Amino acid sequence: MKKIMSQVNGYDIEYVESGKENRKTVIFAHGLGGNVEQWNEQVECFSEKYPAVSFSLQGHGGSSKPKEHHHYTIEQYVKTIISLFEKLDISSCVWVGNSMGGVLGYEMLKIAPEKIEQLYTNGTTPELI
User: What is the CATH number of the domain that holds 62?
Assistant: First the structure.
């Protein structure tokens, strides 16, 4: 899988996009300290039947690493994700989130519920403090 680097919400964000068109996109969201590579095997497997996307949020993997703390809030991460959805023309998805990636899915449901058709989480707390 080839990583793509693109300007999203003012950050350089790395992501992978693979799979069949004309089906519901499966989004794989990493946890705190994770990155796009956390989901390589899942993206490869799911892309046989579905469009599959994983990404490294700002501060993770090869994506931008701003020094100021305000870039690393749940709200700022969600803005980045919504901008990535717009860039990739994803109207809604099946969300798979690990740890913080699950929390981000819950926040997406609050802010933009139309973007998530189904939500699956693992190792996720109700909220990050």
Answer: 3.40.50.1820
What would the pLDDT profile of 80-106 be if each residue is shown by its tens digit?
Answer: 999 999 999 999 999 999 999 999 999
The Cβ of residue 111 has, within 10 Å, a number of other Cβ atoms equal to 13
pTM of the model: 0.93
Whether 19 is in a domain gets the answer yes
Other Cβ atoms closer than 10 A to 5: 13
6 in Cβ contact with 12 (< 8 Å): yes
Please report where in the chains the tokens 């790395």 appear, as a residue.
Answer: 14
Note down the domain range covering 111. 4-122
Distances (CA, A) of 9 to 19, 36, 70: 25, 18, 14
43-63 confidence digits (pLDDT tens): 999 999 999 999 999 999 999
Residues 6+ apart with CB under 8 A from 24: 50, 51, 92, 93, 94, 117
